[in-house]
Amino acid sequence: MISFECDYNNGAHPDVIQALVDTNGEQTLTYGFDCYTQQAVERIKEACAAPDADVFLLAGGTQANATVIDGMLRSYEAVICPETGHINVHEAGAVEAFGHKVIGLPADDGRLDASVLDRFMQVFEGDESRDHVAQPGMVYVSFPTEMGTLYSAEQIENLYTVCRQHGLSLFVDGARLGYGLAADECDFDLPFLASHCDVFYIGGTKVGALCGEAVVFGKGAPRCFFSIVKRHGALLAKGRLVGVQFRELFSNGLYLRIARHAIVMAHRMRDILVNAGLQVYVASPTNQQFFIIPNERMHHLEKLVQFTHWVPYDDHSMVCRFVTSWATTDEDLSMLESLLRQ
Prior knowledge:
By secondary structure, the chain is an alpha/beta fold. Helices cover 40% and strands 20% of the residues.
């Protein structure tokens, strides 16, 4: 059986594994003070054109989201996100477990529009009873979105402008950031993103690493953020585990090469599925592809191929997600095409 279920069901890219093997016998400092983590941080800051940024390496996405949001918000503040946002639907209430309400707003194929955010804040600020509700303090969006779609540079800039007008921080979840930046339709780069939000993270777990996310505060981290990470149980004693991986990912353009490979594979996979008569659910330029599949055909296909059942489309069909990664091969796609023909 071949798998297009997600982009983190393999180990790590061979170059990353080799870097871990090559450094395994060395003794280093702990908790991220090792030379490899420091080198990774410097390479990330250089890639972001943000020499004054603060960078923290954490183990996973949900951990990064909960730690950053709790670290930046006051105890009584809430975070706004698209209704399809990961923190709202797929993180088991992790953010709310730390006392911060998640406010979901209507989304367009996973994207939060600046005008929707502005309207919500105007209504909130004009409400005479606003002191009785959770106070918005941050906006969270994902790039790419949960639906594999992208924000344009203009859309990010507009969101950031509205956030600043209303005293909100902007946090960009980049668990799949590489796949967004490597897409043909993306019209900005890491330096643009670093200067158009308050904090974002560069996902490693889903883009070639065993584990790890690099949280980047372009304009400086909250006071005592290291201690906040520790308080959340998110501080790795063997910080080098993530440091070695990110040092390798940000050597010789590996991070974006990994992502670009997945994009090329995803485009070919999309053509194969379309040619097999399946209907595209949302136009995604990234490594996540969504299709509407009649239930009977879906049940037959799932015996041969692993993919994700996303949401019911109607009583007779399901929206299904197919995902490529650094590990997707031409042979995988040829096998998929052969299975669909059968």
